[in-house]
Amino acid sequence: MLQVSLLGPLEITVGGRPVPVTARRAMRFLAALALAGGRPVAIPGLVESVWADRPPATAEAQLQTVVWRLRAALAEAGLPAGTIARRSAGYLLPREAFRTDLARFRTDVETARAELGRGRTDEAAGILRSALDRWRGPALLGIGGGATLAAAVERMEEERQRAHEQCVRLDVLRGRHHAVSVELRELVALHPLRESLVCTLALALYRSGRQTDALGVLRRTRDRLRDRLGMDPGRELVRVEQAILRQSLAFSAAENRLELRQIERALEG
């Protein structure tokens, strides 16, 4: 079985053994097929993925060379010639011929969402952590390519960020605010204007007995929004700030059913 790993630098393995695919064009071609999930990718789309908006006049002929070399590498690893299949619409990886870590990540997130729906918060949190552990770095790190691949990378990174945010949010609701406070600070440093993350950090600090620090985090975010974007904070930030000032926040997951439902909905994407 061909394994295409997209959650980090592109890696190709067969039966756990690496397949040496290092040419940038071949990597982009294979990534485009893997991201299509078993559907054919048309020749113009593959040319765009491989050469972006500056394809050579001989792009289609060069694409055939890329396919020939990839098929040879996969055959040497023990896979049949049809692993990269030609169709009138273009090329594809047959659905039954390959797996991706992206698909497993998405399955994990959906399983975690289902566990939350059953009220199994500890199990959901563990599955989310396992899903996040599948990432080895930024999606398709260093692969480059055209706008189609860039858009796919952006979508994957958004999925990762959403899962990570809901994971730490769930940990705070489970009473693990001390354990995730450093992790939350790192996430907020990366995404200082993401209000939902800032609110989760403020809740973690508040539940750790650091009300002043929690309010300071919210105030700095309010200032950043005003100075950088000319915007007022959203309703969630205002609600959390007011609840901290009133000291009216609940402390257990059982008392936060609405919050748990919000996490479940967020994991639906």
TrEMBL record:
It comes from the Bacteria. Keywords: DNA-binding, Transcription, Transcription regulation, Two-component regulatory system. It holds the Pfam family BTAD. Signal peptide: none annotated. This is DNA-binding transcriptional activator of the SARP family. The keyword Transcription applies. It comes from Streptomyces aidingensis. Residues 100-245 form the Bacterial transcriptional activator domain. Belongs to the AfsR/DnrI/RedD regulatory family. Gene3D superfamilies: Tetratricopeptide repeat domain, Winged helix-like DNA-binding domain superfamily/Winged helix DNA-binding domain. CDD domains: BTAD (cd15831). SUPFAM superfamilies: C-terminal effector domain of the bipartite response regulators, TPR-like. GO terms for molecular function: DNA binding. Residues 16-93 form the OmpR/PhoB-type domain.
